[in-house]
Amino acid sequence: MIDSARANWAGNLTYGAAGVLTPRSLDEARELVTGAERVKALGSRHSFNDVADTPGLLLDLSGLDLPVTIDAAAATVTLGGAARYGDVVRQLDEAGFALENLASLPHITVAGSVATGTHGSGERHPGLAAAVSAVELLTADGSLHSFCRGDIDFAGVVVGVGALGVLTRLTLDLVPAFSVRQDVYDALPWPAALAHFDEIQAAGYSVSLFTNWARDVVDQVWLKNRVLRSASGGSLPGAEPPGSLFGAVPADGPRHPAHAAGVAAGNTTEQRGVPGPWYDRLPHFRLGFTPSVGAELQTEYFVPRAHAAAAFEALRGIGDRIAELLLVSEIRTVASDDRWLSPTTAGDRVALHFTWLPRQSEVEALLPLIEARLAPFAPRPHWGKLFHGEALDLAYPRLPAFRTLATRIDPTGKFRNAFLDRHVFAG
Questions:
Q1: CA separation for the pair 334, 113 (Å, rounded)
Q2: Do 228 and 263 fall within a single domain?
Q3: What is the SS3 assignment for 76?
Q4: Which whole number is the average pLDDT over 261-288?
């Protein structure tokens, strides 16, 4: 059936595809892929650029009945390509399992998240793609191919940016279920943030700093810490967080990441140290509500952790320009992984995220200035968010190998599009 909805989640992009089709079986999906000249998979539509667009057909896999299967002995879960994190987390928790990490919102599909290098937070935690141990890929000739951790091409397939085919099934590693408490601190002085960045990152299982780059303080620091569970599944008392954090003070109420911009905290996960299940604390936003702000644009760059302080200072130097268009900016640390096109491949990185007002032409005019400021620090962009590109480090160590892999798996370029031609296959 043809879906007439052609806009992405933010409404800033209208897909140029000839149609959006929702196959009802894997066999139907295989027929559609085989018969199409150009085709792409469409997930939760949370990309802010044309990474998922195509002049051909878009496939919405939400009509496929692919059950969630938990293998308790192997501590893995297998799910369909259209599954959202929020759709499966309760089932995992009830079975006694958890995912090691989650992104800031649970509304996004697993397949789209890992394919674009999306991540959570925590200096010991790599991006979400690192939890993937196997995938099933629907390729250009309608074949289904399985790739498992340890296979020669596996690390190139997972963060595939949609260039190789359609991810129809994924298997993820699980850990024992755990609880988390979330504590928020206000007004961290920038000198303290620079001097004690490593200590702040080590203070939580997951740590986020929120700023507008123009004020003398980091507006908020969110610390998410694991809490032990009792045999009955309840939370045991854990260590109390510090009464102050290098000059930042505990928030006197719930906060939205864009609290300083006047956004209320109604859609955020519970704070003020109240323990809760991992799936309801690791994300910033609750599944049943519009995530983040809603009417927004997003950009994100990853710089080597060793350059974090210098990158912060570079952005603060144009803080007034950034703040004019900004709702909030988030700073997180992400551990290294081995996925070829992951933004955090080959070294720990600091993620610099920007949630913009929906003023796209002005944002796009500002991006080259931000990228020029970050250029000395080898920034990489998030594949699914707005970026300019000319000053970015797109020379991934395994990019030549990825191009070879893509040419072998998709020799006619059925899954290629303008985005990939500009940023992956150019040159």
A1: 15
A2: yes
A3: strand
A4: 88
Domain residue limits at 323: 179-381
CA geometry: angle at 90 spanning 122 and 259, to 5°? 50
In a domain, 235, yes or no: yes
Residues 6+ apart with CB under 8 A from 36: 56, 57, 414
Outline where DSSP puts E strands in 281-414: 297-304, 326-334, 349-356, 380-381
pLDDT 10s digits, 44-56: 888 889 999 999 9
Residues 200 and 157 in one domain: no
Token pair for residue 226?
Answer: 């694991």
Residues 350 and 250 in one domain: yes
Distance of alpha carbon 168 from alpha carbon 151, whole angstroms:
18
Of 331, 324, 285, 290, which is closest to residue 308 (Cα–Cα)?
Answer: 331
Give domain status of residue 253, yes or no. Answer: yes
Residues 119 and 250 in one domain: no
Q: In this structure, are 117 and 134 located in the same domain?
A: yes
pLDDT 10s digits, 135-158 = 999 999 999 999 999 999 999 999
165 & 201 share domain: no
Torsion of the alpha carbons at 58, 136, 127 and 386, rounded to the nearest 10: -10
- Pick the more confident residue, 215 or 292: 215
Cα radius of gyration (the chain): 21
Which CATH number belongs to the domain containing residue 336 in this structure?
Answer: 3.30.70.2520
Is the domain of 211 the same as that of 241? yes
The model's pTM: 0.94
With beta carbons less than 8 A apart as the criterion, state whether 300 and 352 touch.
yes
Q: 152: how many CB neighbours lie within 10 A of its CB?
A: 8
Q: Are 356 and 418 in contact (CB under 8 A)?
A: no
CA dihedral 259, 261, 266, 271 (to 10 degrees): -10
Is the same domain home to 122 and 196? Answer: no
Model confidence at 112, pLDDT cuts 50, 70, 90, reads: very high
Domain count, the chain: 2
In a domain, 146, yes or no: yes
| DSSP 8-state symbol, 375 | G
Say how far apart CA 145 and CA 396 lie, in whole Å: 25
